[in-house]
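Quick one: structure tokens for this chain, please?
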Amino acid sequence: MENFVGQLGYGSVVPEGGDDLELRTASARTLAQVKSRRDHMGPFSARSVAGFVTKMWEGKGLPGDQFLLVLESNVGERRTAIRQLQDLSAYPTVVAQLKGSKGLAGLIARTKVLVLPDPRGSAVVQISARQACTAFEAEMYFADLLGVVGHLSDDNGTRAENAYLGLAVSDVQQRFDALQPLLTSALVEAALIEGLCSAVDFLTSDEAPLFYLGVDAQASHVAAGLVVERPELRAAVLQGLESRRNALIHGASGSGKSAVLWDVAYASRHAVRWFQVHRLPPTAVSSLVQLARSRRATVDAPVGFIIDDVGRGFSEGWTALTAEVNRTPGLLLLASIREEDRYPLVDNRRAAQVKVQGDDTLAERVWRELRDRGQDARQF
């Protein structure tokens, strides 16, 4: 999208060409690698970024090639909110790690680093401005492009180097022009306008000073780094979503179900377009399905719905939505439920069920946070 709106100035993009991406102009090309990082691994270190750069340089590049490393967050920063494009020379700690490459100064001069913390969100903003459309319509344009890029990536994996297929600026405009007449905002946005659900905001953080005194976890708390990471539970839920497309996190009150739920959503935010369900009478499920279809939900680019605490008036809606998820590829359902509410839940066996229990690590982290904040742990 940055090429399409002129921010990077390339004429076409070739996915899975000479590298993760080839960015081409009429007379030159840039080889790009794209790197993201799970939160539990910490920020990108100067050493790891130097390794990415070295790997790019050691590829099958041509003498005149430029290089671009795209990072989800800046070097040494756990999370970054600002897009930033800089020469590699602006990162002295990374440059200091680069040794032994022939023509090092020339390679450094031909290499840039793009920090892009929210590719999807940035693309939606750019499409909305370029097409003069709503953000919801921009999401549909973006989903369509995502499908095209996915097919090109698969196709290029079997092609010779001189036969790679790409997506040019004119191709993007053609896709947009073809899709535009199909958009009917009132129908597409019904689930959003009526307050059935809303897109999850993973960028806004909330430091929530009372969080460790028992505040219900939200996406903003994960973004702020407040949630205790439980990687084994996260992996189990992600596996359940992959195998059944429907994961149900259950456990006693206070065991940390919501925290695990939002941690899973945050970890998968680059692959899944998540919406949080606020109310869901069974008759309204069709509006959610229509919303997902309008986003061109596919197995490779799914749309997911989150219900935090199914027992709080969502039981019938969860059952109806489960039936839709079961027969509609590209839909995901992620939910939490108290132990006592799980047993009467109809069709609960259709979901991959993951039990959450309190543990010593969680208890110690909460105790330390309360102590450091000067809050009375007896209030928790």
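The CA atoms of residues 255 and 359 lie 9 Å apart.
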